[in-house]
């Protein structure tokens, strides 16, 4: 009899210690400035590359670290504990390239995964459009075959790391009469003629990660940049999200852990009524609830990661779609509650930019929205239950 093993192995615990040390030393000191200045930090990117943590999921045969799904979650979690914006580097590098890992030719994988593994290029994932967010299949971006090329026209909206990424996995309609089965996936390069970017969106949180439109105006690319067969792009896009909603759960866990750790340190120091506020049972019960919600979400996320790893290794997991949506939903809802409570535990100081918990609360909010809103996650879960 075999049981699904998802408890972290010793190697995973060691990895966590290594990433936490690097994050405390090289990432946390930049977090407030990245938020304040709304700037992507190339110094932090270089620190991640130097430690080979920028795209840990890339298999060894493509020059990567070959981290399994749980190790990737742990890396994202620990980076997010220090800086949520920075955690989108390993997370979105994975999001942009899972379509290739699932469906691309060996040649395409070699061509695009190797430079990313070397730290020379980042990947973004371009599914959403101004009029097609939750209803992603209603996209309008067109890719028209022309000899040995495809010509792409359209605007992708909200693309994380747009402008700083060299490569983009773009979903586009190749057969308008076929609905979701008429969508194909392509690799588009930043340097392709006709690619441009909208201005940086002015956001509530994750301000150190640029979010921009990717605009394609008669972008001609070789036909061999299609990922998989024509018409399979939407399935590949959704199959990808089954793996990567788990990384957004990881980001949420990290943000929440950062806020909880900070709040625990604070309440032990802050004195009111002649004693540390940590002595009050009202405060203690809040901390207990925060830690309980966090640990429940973490176990669900790790369980989903174990399933993701098995699926990537060719063992289809029928409950992966449910579990990845459940993990993303549970972890992001927990992160919103925990970061809000952390602000509460710091009182008026928590509401100021002199302390990091208000940034964490703002950063947590996006995890309930992207890679599918939590309403969409609930819809995905319900469909799985009822089918
Ligand atoms: N894996 C593979 N294929 C799947 C699938 C999955 N998990 N789920 C559905 N499919 C297939 C279906 O079988 C169907 O194919 P057939 O017609 O061949 O059977 C096809 O995909 C269409 O499926 P649905 O009819 O279920 O599709 P739908 O139009 O009802 O939409 C949806 C489904 C769940 C709402 C989907 O559109 C969705 O997830 N929307 C949310 C969008 C989203 O998550 N965007 C994330 C953008 S990335 C991002 O935000 C980045 C970031 O965080 C940094
Ligand atoms: P809408 O779809 O317009 O939703 C509006 C509201 O209606 C939401 O509350 C939603 O939950 C609700 N709703 C919609 N349909 C239903 C339904 N059937 N049942 C119940 N409620 C429903 N996309 C990418 O492709 N790549 C990226 O890198 C990327 N990064 C992002 C980064 C940021 C900072 C942001 C804000 C977004 C990013 N996105 C990205 C897009 C993101 O995935 C979408 O914003 C998200 O899927 C929601 O789409 P929408 O914003 O159009 O909202």
Automatic annotation (TrEMBL):
<feature type="domain" description="Acyl-CoA dehydrogenase/oxidase N-terminal">
    <location>
        <begin position="10"/>
        <end position="120"/>
    </location>
</feature>
<dbReference type="InterPro" id="IPR009100">
    <property type="entry name" value="AcylCoA_DH/oxidase_NM_dom_sf"/>
</dbReference>
<keyword id="KW-0285">Flavoprotein</keyword>
<feature type="domain" description="Acyl-CoA oxidase/dehydrogenase middle">
    <location>
        <begin position="125"/>
        <end position="219"/>
    </location>
</feature>
<dbReference type="InterPro" id="IPR036250">
    <property type="entry name" value="AcylCo_DH-like_C"/>
</dbReference>
<dbReference type="InterPro" id="IPR046373">
    <property type="entry name" value="Acyl-CoA_Oxase/DH_mid-dom_sf"/>
</dbReference>
<dbReference type="InterPro" id="IPR006091">
    <property type="entry name" value="Acyl-CoA_Oxase/DH_mid-dom"/>
</dbReference>
<dbReference type="Pfam" id="PF02771">
    <property type="entry name" value="Acyl-CoA_dh_N"/>
</dbReference>
<dbReference type="InterPro" id="IPR006089">
    <property type="entry name" value="Acyl-CoA_DH_CS"/>
</dbReference>
<dbReference type="InterPro" id="IPR037069">
    <property type="entry name" value="AcylCoA_DH/ox_N_sf"/>
</dbReference>
<protein>
    <submittedName>
        <fullName>Acyl-CoA dehydrogenase</fullName>
        <ecNumber>1.3.99.-</ecNumber>
    </submittedName>
</protein>
<feature type="domain" description="Acyl-CoA dehydrogenase/oxidase C-terminal">
    <location>
        <begin position="231"/>
        <end position="386"/>
    </location>
</feature>
<dbReference type="GO" id="GO:0016491">
    <property type="term" value="F:oxidoreductase activity"/>
</dbReference>
<comment type="similarity">
    <text>Belongs to the acyl-CoA dehydrogenase family.</text>
</comment>
<dbReference type="Pfam" id="PF02770">
    <property type="entry name" value="Acyl-CoA_dh_M"/>
</dbReference>
<keyword id="KW-0560">Oxidoreductase</keyword>
<dbReference type="InterPro" id="IPR013786">
    <property type="entry name" value="AcylCoA_DH/ox_N"/>
</dbReference>
<keyword id="KW-0274">FAD</keyword>
<dbReference type="Pfam" id="PF00441">
    <property type="entry name" value="Acyl-CoA_dh_1"/>
</dbReference>
<dbReference type="InterPro" id="IPR009075">
    <property type="entry name" value="AcylCo_DH/oxidase_C"/>
</dbReference>
